[in-house]
Amino acid sequence: MKKFDRILYGGDYNPNQWPREIWAEDMRMFRDAHINSATINVFSWAKLQPSEDEYDFSELDEIVEMLSDENYDIVLGTSTGALPAWMAAKYPEVERTDYDGRHHKFGQRHNACPNSPIFQKYSKRLARKLAQRYGGNPHVKCWHISNEYGGECFCENCEKAFRIWLKEKYGTLEALNQAWNTEFWGHTIYDWNEVVLPNALSEGLWDGKTAFAGISVDYKRFNSDGILANYVAERDAIREYDKETPITTNLMGTYKGLDYFKWAKEMDIISWDNYPSYNTPWSGTAMCHDLMRGLKNAPFMLMEQTPSQQNWQPYNSLKRPGQMRAQSYQTLAHGADTIQFFQLRRSIGGCEKFHGAVIAHAGTENTRVFREVSQLGAELEKLGDTILGSRNEAQVGIVFDWDNYWALEYASGPSVDLSYVNQIHMYYQYFYDRNIAVDMIPFNADFQKYKMVVAPVLYMVKEGMAEELEAFAQNGGTLVTTYMSGIVGQSDNVHLGGYPGPLRKLAGVWVEEIDALAPEQHNEVLMNSGEKYTCSLVCDLMHLEGAQCLGAYGTDFYKGMPAVTRNCYGKGFVYYVGTQMEEAGLCSVLDQAAADAAVESVGPETEGLEVVCRRTQDSKIYFIMNFGDQERRMPSWLCHNRDLLSGEMVSEGTILRKYDTYVIQVRIR
Ligand SMILES: [Zn+2]
């Protein structure tokens, strides 16, 4: 497989939207910005295939030739992320039917029904033709299939495919009825053709909830698998002609619709698009990077970020001076081997005309954004291949699981405020704030690799997982889990015999009831140490079954009942956090858990800074960033090394202002 030999620096480039004289101007300006890569042909299906029997690659030939002459690393799209109009007109089945049952007409993008035989046939054919034509070009360094896969379809083709998927999964209707608990509301299915897709016309309830989470979670799995099959079909078509070039598609962080851990198995390299909002905490962005790295436990590509601003959020603030640079180094720190923008030249029309670009509408290099892109480009060029392929190592694993994401948010009760990503982030943030490296791991990860495993809101405990967690704790690992854990199995039916079901023995507690607190309500947790913290969202009413109470509720009829517990299990420890504690309270619990696990941070004196380490065979590469408003001093243990970006020595006097970033390489032998 081809490998990158430099940090790909560039991004989405659409010269097809511009007259030829602009192309040469682009090449000149991009050279000044040290851009070495372009992602092309992402949305050109209508041009490449103007009608059913006609293909025309002449313009793409010219673009590929120009970029090859300039020695670009080309990321070549397959263009199947948006349908051509003729196809929608001739074969309306290629368009999706939405959750409300409306069959769509031509328009927008990300619009193909994954189970349309016409879409399947022509998308695969296009990918094959592209590979046949460009697969031998040494400048093509990566294939980029479709674009930001996602969405759902509820058409008849999908309904038929769902029935086939279910037959394969369950074998018999008895098994299906049992899995979905269809005795509830008398929904027994007697014939496979009676199965309908769960949307607003069938099982959908208010607020996107569902009458049968078993059906709806299965639909999510089916939809993720179906769209993945589209990816795999194009990938295999490319592989007929190109065995060497890595193939990817751009993912979207914690995007809910697709089970990315399952997708990752079919992808050669992960790539993703990072679009934080103006108020996204830096820890949230870091968590997404760690999740994307965790999908394959390997370096990834940053396929898209904006150099300046976005257009599709409610408030599209500019990146402040230095912010794009710092954000880019955070991305590299957490495992990226590329920095790519959407986009290189700002388009004149369409809904993305206000989306930032390297070259703005003014068409000149005399802009703040262009200067910042150039500075970063020069620095990355200087870094060369230093960081490529280097690894992030972590002693802490946080479980992220799409089945849990879907099932928890489908649950009707106990609270509408249970947001899966927010819950995970609350725990991630503790480690982020202390510069303790974290791997985001799947439910079936090798837990034994870690000193500490954190599994917040582990609502769905699938077959085999409890045993693996028991073995982990038995061997000395520290496990932290919380309210809304161990409740259901893989079909969303409750584990009987008391919460937290299969985790009960491990946690040494029995949760008898779960109270929900409205936003204006709270309780408090009185810790054994005497500290008192407020708590909210949900309160587990639990009984000790071997665990030790660390803190008890302070008010209400369950005053005095345990709220947080710690259980000695084998050589390890299991913490159970029974309510959402205010930040300081959660930190005090996690302090104790982290001490039990003896997890280490990247180093001392890093408070207020983000410091991340990537490891090569013979060195540690530290990324030191300040995202806070306060000035910070360089930690002394990092001083007397050379900053790879400026070439200057850092000393005790080195001060980091907001967005200042240093990269320091320390040899380890
Ligand atoms: Zn469909």
Structural class: alpha/beta
Terminal Cα span: 30 Å
User: Any low-confidence stretches, pLDDT <50, length ≥5?
Assistant: none
Portion in beta strands: 15-25%
- At CATH level 3, the topology of the largest domain is TIM Barrel
How many individual β-strands?
25
Quaternary structure type: single chain
Name the CATH architecture of the largest domain. Alpha-Beta Barrel
Ligands bound to this protein structure: zinc ion
- Looking at CATH, the homologous superfamily of the largest domain is Glycosidases
Overall geometry comes to globular
Total number of helices:
17
What radius of gyration results from the CA coordinates? 26 Å
Describe, in plain words, how this protein is organized in 3D.
The model has no long low-confidence stretch (mean pLDDT 97). It is globular, with a radius of gyration of 26 Å. It has 3 domains: 8-95 and 115-151 and 227-383, Glycosidases (TIM Barrel), CATH 3.20.20.80; 396-597, Rossmann fold, CATH 3.40.50; 610-667, Sandwich (Immunoglobulin-like), CATH 2.60.40. Strands 10, 11, 12, 13, 14, 15, 16, 17, 18, 19 and 20 form an 11-stranded mixed β-sheet that branches. Strands 5-4-3-2-1-9-8-7-6 form a 9-stranded parallel β-sheet, with helices on one face. The chain has 669 residues and is α/β, with parallel strands linked by helices. It has 17 helices and 25 strands. The longest helix has 27 residues, at 213-239. The structure holds zinc ion (ZN). The site of zinc ion has 7 residues, from helix 6. Zinc ion (ZN) is lined by residues 96, 113, 115, 153, 155, 157-158.
